[in-house]
Specification:
By secondary structure, the chain is an alpha/beta fold. The protein is about 40% helix and about 15% strand. The strands form two sheets. Strands 3-2-1-4-5-6-7 form a seven-stranded parallel β-sheet, with helices on both faces. The chain has a six-stranded parallel β-sheet with strand order 10-9-8-11-12-13, sandwiched between helices.
């Protein structure tokens, strides 16, 4: 099957720094090829993933633009990407951009939903479903929340045409592994209420562990940092600047435990599978996709509050690093994810040819 894999213009594939969607796209390109499919990656020209590339822009761009300029760029790139998929002979489009193509597009379109069930997205995906597109959730919990929001806003839980759920892939083979850990807890994430970095400080301190924090603090996040995080800093907290992917995986492999203190309904949470691939257990609140990603008692612990999280973090060293890595490899590898997507594509193609949905 020839798959047109469409990515946003903001980062190269794979990204050199931040870029969760771009990591997923890169791993899927690898997985599709491993599963025997032909991939056409339609993405920024400075992408380096080992797949045939149709450069939609010479290099990644757009983050420095205003919101209005970004939207114009997104629309312009989307039109050219969807046209390129036709011209290059793709059989199916796998979209990661949310571009709202005109009705009558001749190829089947399967869209991965990466974000939460915000009203704007619910209504957009409802329109795109009416235009014939299909959707894949990155967790069952995310799909459930979209169905609930769809019923409330659009009058039907089926107004968004879900074709399945496929968890985000994780390339274990390219990930460093350490069985001997250093005695510190690790937090990686944004500095906002959703990610709850101040909670990570409280948990690590209660567990008697040093905390290393790879904390992204942009202009919008600065007030939260100053009000909630900065007052908690001390000698037991090492605050790191924005890190490269290589530095991130070095930290993940070395840490005794990763604290996933996210307190919202996180659709997936790549850091959980990244940590597991490095042989490091994760302690997370039992909400969002965490119960689908973490094997409780094997690759980490699921908890309900910060007190439970501190107690679980203190015993994370009892879990087997090899079991953590093996679980991620067996359940989240690019090959596993790609094969699940291909089954979705085959069902969508069969439906277009008159078969059952």
């Amino acid at each position: 099957m020839k798959i047109a894999l469409i990515a946003p213009p903001w980062y190269p594939i794979p990204p050199v720094g931040y870029g969760g969607i771009e990591i997923v796209v890169a791993d899927l390109a690898t997985g599709y090829q491993q599963a025997g499919n032909e991939v056409l990656l339609i993405a920024p020209g400075d992408s380096t993933v080992a797949a045939p590339l149709f450069p939609i822009v010479p290099h990644h761009l757009g983050l420095e633009l205003s919101a209005e300029e970004q939207e114009r760029l997104r629309q312009d790139c989307g039109r050219r990407q969807f046209q390129a998929a036709i011209e290059q002979g793709a059989q199916v489009v796998h979209d990661h951009t949310d571009f709202d193509h005109p009705r009558g597009y001749p190829l089947p379109v399967v869209r991965t939903i990466h974000g939460p069930a915000a009203e704007r997205l619910v209504r957009l995906y409802g329109r795109q479903t009416d235009a014939g597109d299909h959707f894949v959730g990155i967790s069952s919990r995310q799909r459930q929340l979209f169905r609930e929001a769809s019923e409330k806003m659009l009058g039907s839980a089926d107004a968004i045409g879900f074709a399945g759920v496929v968890h985000n892939p994780m390339d274990v083979a390219a990930t460093p592994f350490r069985s001997q850990k250093e005695h510190f807890a690790l937090f990686i994430g944004r500095c906002d209420w959703e990610k709850n970095p101040d909670g990570a400080i409280r948990v690590a301190r209660a567990a008697g562990m040093k905390l290393k924090m790879a904390l992204r603090v942009n202009n919008y996040e600065r007030p939260y940092f100053e009000e909630h995080v900065e007052p908690l800093l001390g000698p037991d907290v090492e605050l790191l600047p924005e890190i490269t992917p290589a530095q991130k995986f070095e930290l993940l492999a070395a840490a005794e435990v990763v604290l996933f203190t996210s307190q919202w309904e996180e659709p997936f949470g790549l850091v959980m599978t990244e940590a597991g691939a490095c042989g490091t257990p994760v302690v997370a609140f039992a909400r969002g996709a965490a119960p689908e990603v973490i094997a409780d008692g094997l690759t980490g612990f699921l908890v309900d509050d910060e007190d439970q999280m501190a107690a679980a973090a203190a015993k994370a060293d009892t879990l087997d690093p090899y079991a953590c890595r093996r679980y991620v490899e067996e359940n989240f590898s690019p090959r596993v994810a790609a094969e699940k997507y291909v089954r979705v594509f085959e069902a969508v193609l069969a439906e277009r040819e008159g078969g059952p949905r």
